[in-house]
Amino acid sequence: MSFLTLQGISKRYGDFTAIEHIDLSVERGEFMSLLGPSGCGKTTTLQMIAGFISPTSGRITLDGRDITDARPEKRGIGVVFQSYALFPHMTVAGNVGFGLEMRKMKRDERRRRIGEALELVHLSGLDERYPKELSGGQRQRVAIARAIAMQPELLLLDEPMSNLDAKLREEMHIELRAIQKRLGITTILVTHDQVEAMTMSDRIAVMHRGKVAQLSTPFDAYERPATPFTSTFLGRTNTLEGEVLRRNPRCAEVAVAGTTLHVPHEGRDVDGAVNVYIRPEKVRLANGDARLQGRIATRVFVGNQWLLVVDTALGRMHVAQPNFGAPPPEEGREVGLAWTDDDLRVLNQEGRHGHA
Ligand SMILES: Nc1ncnc2c1ncn2[C@@H]1O[C@H](COP(=O)(O)OP(=O)(O)OP(=O)(O)O)[C@@H](O)[C@H]1O
Ligand SMILES: [Mg+2]
């Protein structure tokens, strides 16, 4: 049995269903992210696991125990809340060491743990400061250190890095992931930051309107979206509306604006009105082997790549080209576009596919 299971979990507030029948299993030592837009039910799900909200129906087990009705402090779970409440009258070291002191850990050992945790979040030397003497991002890091110091069996993180600047956040992703692996702490991270979810997770549960729309590895979530929602939510993509002409054993022939595209259907039951998707980085500028002609409407330089918007007979196409050194053609110029059919994806428009 998995380390943590949610079985048929729902949460209703009056007539409003915040969570609709979620089944989810998290393995021991796994890092799972709940990723989705604001209001999709991420915090509600996490709070039900932590025990601060009780589900309307369903069952939660942790390490074989039914904890559905257990009090939060009896669950052995570490939590970093979306609003990371620190004790204002305690120093940084006091905050980080509070739980350890409650556990009656010896002073030397406690000091060592506090030091380690603060080092991890880059706050060594600020031990004696009070929360009001810290920036928002520093407070957030104290909250992370406090949870890590406890080395809980299950760690729940709700947007723990939302206040950090981009560079620090990137470093923390890698360091937090490393320490999570080293200590083997099963972790669930709530985030709406796709890069954060992809960098850190073994698996991502993409949530949409109180349900899990897709549960898969970061690579599969990006490369094989299971629903129109996940296709457009994770990363950027070009969406082309089309009509299935024929479904062959491996690919579907799809009519898009008078052109026929051959799209691998990966066993999906596609028919009628469909969307064909292709990622901007999988479309390239081409001369001889161009599949489509267009005119560059916008050209933007973002350092590691160029982002182009190209007007074509199939509609506006976004193209991301790595920065090889030489700039691509200027705005207004005619260009050819090419891609490999294997990089196209197809889904029924209404999202009738269910889960991957
Ligand atoms: N106590 C409550 N009473 C009524 N509705 C609630 C309550 N708590 C949450 N909701 C609703 O449930 C839905 C899910 O809320 P939740 O806080 O889980 O979203 P979230 O995915 O964490 O969003 P965010 O990214 O903005 O934090 C929202 O539509 C919210 O308005
Ligand atoms: Mg939330």
Automatic annotation (TrEMBL):
The keyword Endoplasmic reticulum does not apply. InterPro entries: AAA+_ATPase, ABC_SmlMolc_Importer, ABC_transporter-like_ATP-bd, ABC_transporter-like_CS, Mo/tungstate-bd_C_term_dom, P-loop_NTPase, Transp-assoc_OB_typ2. GO terms for biological process: quaternary ammonium group transport. Pfam families: ABC_tran, TOBE_2. GO terms for molecular function: ATP binding; ATP hydrolysis activity; transmembrane transporter activity. Gene3D superfamilies: 2.40.50.100, P-loop containing nucleotide triphosphate hydrolases (3.40.50.300). SMART domains: AAA. It comes from the Bacteria. Residues 4-234 form the ABC transporter domain. Keywords: ATP-binding, Cell inner membrane, Cell membrane, Membrane, Nucleotide-binding, Transport. SUPFAM superfamilies: MOP-like, P-loop containing nucleoside triphosphate hydrolases. GO terms for cellular component: ATP-binding cassette (ABC) transporter complex. This is ABC transporter ATP-binding protein. It comes from Trinickia dinghuensis. The lineage of its organism: Bacteria, Pseudomonadati, Pseudomonadota, Betaproteobacteria, Burkholderiales.
